[in-house]
Amino acid sequence: MKAIAVVMVAVSAAWVCTTQADAGLSVRLMDDVRVKETQYRLADIAHVETSDQSLKQQLEETTIGVAPRLGYTERISRDRVAGLIESLHPQLHGAIDWTGSKQISIRSTGETLLLQPFIEQAREALLSELRRQWSEIQQFEIQPVSVQPDIALPFGKTTVVPRIAAGTKPNKRLCAWLDISVDGKHYQTVPVWFSLKAYRQVLVAKRPMTVHHPLREEDVVMESRDVAGIADALTDFSPLRESLWLKRPLPEGAVVAAENLEKMPLVRSGQNVRVTLAMGPVHIETEGVAQVYGRMGDTVRVQNRETRGIYAARVTGSGEVTVSTR
To answer: Residue 40 and residue 61: Cα distance in Å, rounded?
Structure first.
């Protein structure tokens, strides 16, 4: 019985080969092809010729590979294609007449994705996040920085999801991303930049002021201004009651920010100061003129108003210094 089975298999295989030979099976490979789908079949890269229409359709529908990304070229050899076909259809081994190109160049064609609707979605997502986090801002204005060109994608089901960073701050420039998928697989991420204006009531300089100007309430006015990129703009007058002065010049109409201010030193250059001369248990008070700025504990130069001599003293209070002698 075993011998009979072997004979039957051999006869069957011989019959298949004879049938295929009668069908005149040949595959002629192309030189340069462009494919539309994300995967390409034998029919996309070759001409299958046989009188057996069922076999022809079966071979033409055989998937050969994944289409390259747009702008790229994939090259596949005739031997590789033949090996793949014969591994999937072992009954065809040696039965196919392979002709045509020995190497096929494969490129992808695609479709154009219009980005404008998705850019608008990204803008709305940014606006929603900013409003959620920064409710004190009265008004936001967000515009794309430049026109984003439309992009080419391979044919397939396209999905675009706008994405923004968590904790987005109201900076002058903001970025959102468009995550693009084709047939459920991530294909590309496109960054989209926006300009931002964010308006709220803040303190504004009434006039130009120089460095080290002691800032007072009469120097500023409350107005609605764009504070995008200004994280610490002053929104009330209370900080000005803490003896602050400017670290740098402030032009008229500029928004007053905390980073532009610092506490005034206890002793200022040119200021008349009370000088205490400590000689053991004896303390003598006089006056002098500070030559430099100084904070609590700093050593500063002080000029005697009568002798014009310069000596060192330690800052001990507002407008007060102490000279210790032994």
So the answer is: 9
Query: 263 vs 133, 139, 238, 260, CA distance in Å?
Result: 30, 32, 14, 11
What is the residue-wise DSSP string for 196-212? Answer: EEEEEEEEEESS-B-TT
Tell me the three state secondary structure of residue 12: helix
pLDDT at residue 285 in the model? 87
Neighbours of 27 (CB within 10 A): 23
Contact status, residue 285 vs residue 274, Cβ threshold 8 Å: yes
Record the tokens describing residue 318, joined without a space.
């507002």
Residue count of the chain, please give it.
326
Q: In b/e form, how buried is each residue of 279-312, taking b as 16+ CB within 10 angstroms?
A: eeeeeeeeebbbeebbeeeeebbbbeeeeeeeee
Q: Is the dihedral of CA 283, 288, 291, 295 positive or negative?
A: positive
What pLDDT is stored for residue 23 in this prediction?
A: 54
pLDDT for the residue numbered 9? 36
In 3D space, the residue among 54, 80, 176, 178 whose CA is nearest the CA of residue 127 turns out to be 176
**43 closest CA partner among 24, 25, 30:** 30
Please state, in angstroms and rounded to a whole number, the distance separating the CA atoms of residues 300 and 39: 80
pLDDT mean over 104-108: 92
